[in-house]
């Protein structure tokens, strides 16, 4: 598997990372090197092996249904560049 | 998903275009908010209408290092809903990340279930109608799947000229996305399906079904085709938030597609919005590129697993579902399908009816609940949970008719009094002298008086027996409506010498 420069640009866009053409060019090479490295794993036969989801087999931890958190709106918006009345305020996003 | 046509094209559902008939194909995705105290993966409250960002934990705000821990009740609610939809419950399901950027999604991804949902295929039986002749048509709508996912926050765009305001109170609230198969063939069927689904969820107590508050929202996939032909290209109408709008959105979208196709055009697969003010759908400015959610299993969550005994225990505790209740009402109380349908639509109404009907005539109880109580509540803009007339009070009124204490006509007045003023029906009848006069002597006296003072009418009635009704009316009037109508009728005829 390898990626071309258009794929790199598209993935960057989907990730909202600004990448100029020179960077994209460089990253294409770097990403392909990484992919090539990972590709070696294909040599292992994993036929019939379930993907590992946890290092130790364990049941999913569950919580009781009770309100144990919240009421900290000041903390929640504390790091927001702009806020008003505890709303986050962001550049308009409506279509 | 492979699309399988499970329905036989029926001309009565076709809509005619300029070049012939068309058939509408609809599938729906319903987002139903899970009824729970806390969110799906955090301990913040799910209460509607809290102050901005008050119901937000650091998990919901996606602060670095926060980890999701699932709320067990949300899992149980999803399983119970699956059981109510007669669906396959998957003992192992997996949470995935659905990646996209939007200001009201602080994680940058929604935790959802993609390849392995908690609930698989099921079905809902939907009663469509009544038609003009009062009949109902039963259709079956397949359920493709149900999965658990997080809700996003809410953006408000009308607070500032250049900025959007974001409130994360809804962020992380548990949703069930219920996906139907494309088995729906008309706007009426879609409305009936959504209504039925809402009824089932409310019976189960897994979603409050409150569409005004956004607890239930529907995405509607609409396409048209020549009857029995290949499925056409569909458009998805997002976030339709009432049963009525679902109907309108389908009608207008189908007409739009037919107009394009009949002009030789083709349909672009796209996402559209329904504008209730204009009654039509419009394109959401199409994204420059198709969605690419890059789903992958959420590394923060191991697969959700439980055993069959866990499911069986929930199944054993399941409430009686609307279909079963309807069948029982028809069978046990001799109700018509229509009456039974009205009574079971809301569980509270069904429970109320059962209390009234206990030890009484089921049909009489149904008539009083549907025609009088629901009618009066509707007029007063109240729901069954706010009824001023209790089941015991209504039962007492029915008993008073049954044992001949009051006439059916007086009973209506009595109901009115109990509805507006309250009180014990038996005591009211006593205090206000509403008892039916069954004392033949008293009735006879009243009949004699009316006959004596109307000699001309007596002559007319002898020639034309139907005029006896006039005498009955006069006697009822003279006795303030309290005379037993059958007794009056018999006496009038006897005195006038009219044979039955």
TrEMBL record, chain A:
<comment type="similarity">
    <text>Belongs to the GatC family.</text>
</comment>
<keyword id="KW-0436">Ligase</keyword>
<dbReference type="InterPro" id="IPR003837">
    <property type="entry name" value="GatC"/>
</dbReference>
<comment type="subunit">
    <text>Heterotrimer of A, B and C subunits.</text>
</comment>
<comment type="function">
    <text>Allows the formation of correctly charged Asn-tRNA(Asn) or Gln-tRNA(Gln) through the transamidation of misacylated Asp-tRNA(Asn) or Glu-tRNA(Gln) in organisms which lack either or both of asparaginyl-tRNA or glutaminyl-tRNA synthetases. The reaction takes place in the presence of glutamine and ATP through an activated phospho-Asp-tRNA(Asn) or phospho-Glu-tRNA(Gln).</text>
</comment>
<keyword id="KW-0648">Protein biosynthesis</keyword>
<keyword id="KW-0547">Nucleotide-binding</keyword>
<dbReference type="InterPro" id="IPR036113">
    <property type="entry name" value="Asp/Glu-ADT_sf_sub_c"/>
</dbReference>
<dbReference type="Pfam" id="PF02686">
    <property type="entry name" value="GatC"/>
</dbReference>
<keyword id="KW-0067">ATP-binding</keyword>
<protein>
    <recommendedName>
        <fullName>Aspartyl/glutamyl-tRNA(Asn/Gln) amidotransferase subunit C</fullName>
        <ecNumber>6.3.5.-</ecNumber>
    </recommendedName>
</protein>
